[in-house]
């Protein structure tokens, strides 16, 4: 960390300043931040990359197989693809689990880095690893609770279908409520992990604190995470683009040649590049979490004026010292 370029976290900022300082912070701390991310997150990102290759390869092969079978059969007889879909379920589960763990770990490392930075502590990969181990379990627990609640709420939406045709109307209404509720709670609980790591709070206490913390700034949060999400998603898309082009090229060639397997080498290479791009993209999401942390501290300063009051006190102490020195003379 370059102390001469230290960025004050407790500072009132507007949206444009938040975006600017997020990238300024990332640039100033690029080496130490991403070195720590690489060494700590490399194992789970490697697992995620392998699971991504298996998932994308099986998924796009399934698409290509479906297309070519429809062409070759040339009939209106419906095909049963249940066996093919069931065959990719293990890949989907491993892919989803590794993605969940990778995202949670990147989130934890990023916020632990911010905490060390804020406290003016030495930042090195071993120290960052110690902090990450301290909070990773809580972050995983909080993320799992939110994920489980989301799955249960989603499943409840389909319960009215047992009522017959009229139940479909209630399912549609429940699903609309679910979408808006998910959006609302995502914003309200977005700082739960920040309270866990930056303030050493428990899981359920962090949910309550995040819910209260976001009062009055709901739409500011939405605008900021929308812009940050757009930027980081663009990074991820760029990393995945070469693999995606190869995969769709292989699908097109298989479609043109009516070959359900396409070119296996191109398919595997495209899947590998897509998985690698997705893994690198997950590391890029650290920028998103850094931005959230800066938003968090900016909001605290806006509400409490901690840094401003400290500066005023320091000025007063300095002036008092100078006056006393003059009196002695």
The proportion of residues in beta strands is: under 5%
Q: Would you identify the regions where 5 or more consecutive residues have pLDDT less than 50?
A: 321-329
H/E element order: HHHHHHHHHHHH
Average pLDDT metric: 82
- The residue fraction in helices comes out at over 70%
Distance between the termini: 43 Å
Radius of gyration, taken over Cα atoms and rounded to an integer in Å = 25 Å
- Work out the helix count: 12
Number of strands: 0
Characterization of this structure:
This protein is mainly α and 329 residues long. It has twelve helices and no strands. The protein has helices at 15-28, 30-73, 82-87, 89-118, 125-156, 165-188, 192-198, 203-213, 218-257, 264-284, 286-304, 306-328. Helix 2 (30-73) packs antiparallel against helix 4 and helix 5 (125-156) runs antiparallel to helix 7. The longest helix is centred in the N-terminal third of the chain and has 44 residues, at 30-73. Residues 321-329 have low confidence and may be disordered.
